[in-house]
């Protein structure tokens, strides 16, 4: 089997997986929890980043920590690489099984094990969908704060892997700020527990470094999350602008004024058109940008904050500032924002690539102009919907994946936009991770010594690099030696 | 020199350090920045935890990252252990030079390098005293949020090493929540930068794992910290209680009611007596406990929050609820809290040992009763002043260090209290770290597999364990092999 995987053409992945592997996995989880056919495995060849594809040799659905341990141990004996997968909503190829091997799909570990309102934590399995937890907490007046736009599909385990953000990250922080502890199955089959319900635990902050490690340390099998009381009240405004600069300057000015909004989200004209075509919210089709501005907290004082935001928007030439005067109107605004990605199909392109860069907030006008220029240069459709308050941009490059020239132009434009983010003092990912897509940027952001110590850190947990090889760090080694380079690159070229 | 250090009696440390070492260090930092006499080195034999003492062979004061690099490289060549020290306010022996060697005192790296209000960060050298930064920020209406009681003396570098808390941790979080990045000199002399002013950086969250690593990864040479806007207003109340249970139940009830106070600090009767004897604040000497309750934020709505806290205190039989009606009155209350430790001398004991445990907030009544019983059992004076809102207790055991029997009783009582914290679902340190004092508790809190991976993590940065040997983890090895056990234990026994 190890020869099959080392084959640079990954031809084996088109063949049936070796019977030995299938039988081992079926013995652990039962035949109904193992996928082996070509059609089934093709479903798992990529995630939301469709420009890198590698078929796993087998897909396994464990239902307990013990089963994950048994799978990992079997992989070790069989010298197979393995990696975890949540809902596959990653946008940077984090779920691509580089080097083939065993894809450990956690979607069937979906139980909420405990909800403890008094001590404000919950314990969940990694496959619990983000919004399920918030739904389960509704009767108690609590929620789970990180709310990615994909929260209706993405899993808490996946959120932990990529340290996901969301619209309310601006006030409430990203995933790492809400994870109290994790249970981790190490690549050697040992199980460790880091953190837990008590906030102050001694020892190294392993929880913090595991969150965002993109599966390169092991498989998270249980998660202790912090619960957040629902705000007493909200004020949600929609600023309508005739220029992108006015919109981004408004955002920078609101933060500069010392207001800490719960969210500051921006949609550009093309995005407004798509959302409007799908949902008919009544957004002004001729506006250059709209900004959703939300403050939350105690009712007392909240209107004053909202009034200040409105005044700032107007001072920056907002054409109009609409107010969500009911909970239904607020829900509608957020539906527009969160389902924006789902409406892109309306714009007439079969594929899109969502980029994820960060710039200092004050550089938003510059990067938005750069994105526009780059789109024109490469004759690409680009629209924008993003966490403006965090300086976390999401230009969406639209194309037809079947046209190699368009794919090439998307890759080139993406690269230029991300390089510009670095030049402006930002970074190449705000919340989607490095995955396989952005590995080449790591040496631009870190010194060789920085990267050397990241690899050493990974080796502390994952010495053979059999767990999630070819992810995050621009290094080969161990199980993935050879594949990292040989298999992601051909996949990209194949798409081209 | 390496023989000298391996000597179990540490006798060398009473002799003059080898000329070779002194000359190397003087060549790097100048003679005026090297301490070599017995008297000078004796000052650095311990920190706030006086029950473990080991004299360093030499104390060196670098003034730049380059000098730290040169010192570390020289130590490596000379096969000498080394460790960083801030102000020495650690209460768990974190600054004790286990195994002798070179103590790298960072107190002269005390420059605030940059204050950037717009992007809300500052860059400081590790020797900057915590309160200096907040003082420097006053004109801008900002502060550095973590405020240990020792903030007038402790350094930001030391805060990073132990992940310090403080009274306002309850609302604002501990040090790790306010550190954006660090520059770290590794034990091999390489320098890496983790994080920085941009919040979203890809790669592993090395900053998070370095904060709280107690110098076991390397020497932090520069720190990027987050700045926090000053609250618009405060309400500070003092609840006076005739029973400890009423006071702790009030605390639990305030949090349970969904209020997020800025601080909830408790002083018991003995502590009140000491504070009163020193400062004459007018605290009621016959009360069993007082609780400082503070809310902060926007003026609007704040009084309502304060009123709710007062009502909860009264519902739990507070005899009286005093209000700080002016900024001067508020400052006085905080002076009482923050200088409480300094007043313990009034109670007539020459030494005290401040313990640091954590329990779930709802278990506070139990642990307070246990502390009282344990004090009686061992005939020790014990007083309490602590971060009640966090469940972070600080029983202060008072004794005479010259009396071996008293020392023995203090150690036994400390051990029992901390073991009880674990039994109640808590931990043996909230903010002071493991240091040398609490190493023996680590196997009670972590499985062998957990500890195995902590050691592997340390080895990723500090493979020879020459940097801060004998700290945090119950393992010998490398530079410290032999000393870890041989030198801290005799030091304790010597004190006994």
From TrEMBL, chains A, B:
This is FAD-binding protein. Residues 52-230 form the FAD-binding PCMH-type domain. GO terms for molecular function: FAD binding; oxidoreductase activity. The keyword Ribosomal protein does not apply. Its cofactor is FAD. Belongs to the FAD-binding oxidoreductase/transferase type 4 family. InterPro entries: FAD-bd_oxidored_4_C, FAD-bd_PCMH, FAD-bd_PCMH-like_sf, FAD-bd_PCMH_sub2, FAD-linked_Oxase-like_C, FAD-linked_OxidoTrans_Type4, Oxid_FAD_bind_N, Vanillyl_alc_oxidase_C-sub2. The keyword Oxidoreductase applies. The lineage of its organism: Bacteria, Pseudomonadati, Planctomycetota, Planctomycetia, Gemmatales. PANTHER family: GLYCOLATE OXIDASE SUBUNIT GLCD. Keywords: FAD, Flavoprotein, Oxidoreductase.
């Amino acid at each position: 089997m190890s020869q099959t995987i080392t084959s640079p053409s990954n031809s084996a992945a088109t063949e049936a997986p070796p019977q030995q592997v299938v039988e081992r996995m079926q013995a652990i989880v039962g035949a109904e929890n193992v996928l082996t056919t070509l059609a089934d495995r093709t479903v798992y060849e990529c995630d939301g980043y469709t420009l890198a594809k590698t078929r796993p040799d087998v897909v396994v659905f464990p239902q307990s920590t013990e089963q994950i341990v048994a799978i990992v141990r079997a992989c070790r004996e069989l010298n197979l690489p393995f990696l975890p997968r949540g809902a596959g909503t990653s946008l940077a190829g984090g779920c691509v099984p580089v080097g083939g091997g065993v894809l450990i799909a956690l979607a069937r570990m979906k139980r909420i094990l405990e909800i403890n309102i008094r001590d404000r934590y919950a314990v969940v399995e990694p496959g619990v969908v983000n919004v399920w937890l918030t739904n389960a907490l509704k009767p108690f007046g609590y929620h789970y704060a990180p709310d990615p736009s994909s929260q209706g599909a993405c899993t808490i385990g996946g959120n932990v892997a990529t340290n996901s953000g969301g619209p309310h990250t601006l006030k409430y922080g990203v995933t790492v700020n809400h994870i109290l502890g994790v249970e981790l199955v190490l690549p050697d089959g040992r199980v460790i527990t880091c953190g837990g319900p008590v906030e102050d635990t001694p020892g190294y902050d392993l929880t913090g470094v595991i969150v965002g490690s993109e599966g390169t340390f092991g498989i998270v099998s249980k998660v202790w999350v912090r619960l957040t009381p629902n705000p007493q009240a909200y004020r949600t405004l929609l600023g309508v602008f005739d220029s992108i600069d006015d919109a981004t300057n408004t955002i920078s000015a609101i933060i500069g004024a010392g207001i800490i909004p719960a969210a500051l989200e921006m949609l550009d004209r093309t995005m407004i058109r798509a959302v409007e075509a799908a949902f008919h919210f009544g957004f002004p089709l001729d506006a250059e940008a709209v900004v959703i501005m939300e403050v939350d907290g105690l009712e007392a004082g909240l209107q004053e904050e909202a009034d200040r935001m409105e005044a700032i928007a107007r001072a920056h030439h907002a054409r109009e500032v609409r107010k969500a005067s009911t909970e239904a109107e607020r829900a509608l605004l957020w539906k527009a924002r969160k389902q924006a990605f789902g409406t892109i199909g309306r714009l007439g392109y079969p594929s899109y690539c969502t980029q994820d860069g960060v710039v200092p907030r004050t550089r938003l006008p510059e990067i938005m102009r750069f994105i526009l220029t780059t789109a024109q240069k490469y004759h690409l459709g680009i629209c924008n919907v993003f966490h403006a308050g965090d300086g976390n941009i999401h230009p969406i490059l639209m194309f037809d994946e079947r046209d190699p020239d368009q794919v090439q132009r998307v890759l080139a434009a993406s690269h230029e936009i991300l390089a510009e983010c670095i030049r402006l003092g930002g970074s190449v990912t705000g919340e989607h991770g490095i995955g396989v897509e952005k590995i080449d940027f790591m040496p631009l952001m870190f010194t060789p010594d920085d990267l050397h110590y990241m690899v050493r850190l990974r080796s502390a947990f994952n010495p053979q690099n059999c767990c999630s090889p070819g992810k995050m760090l621009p290094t080969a080694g161990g199980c993935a030696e050879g594949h990292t380079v040989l298999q992601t690159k051909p996949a990209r070229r194949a798409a081209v």
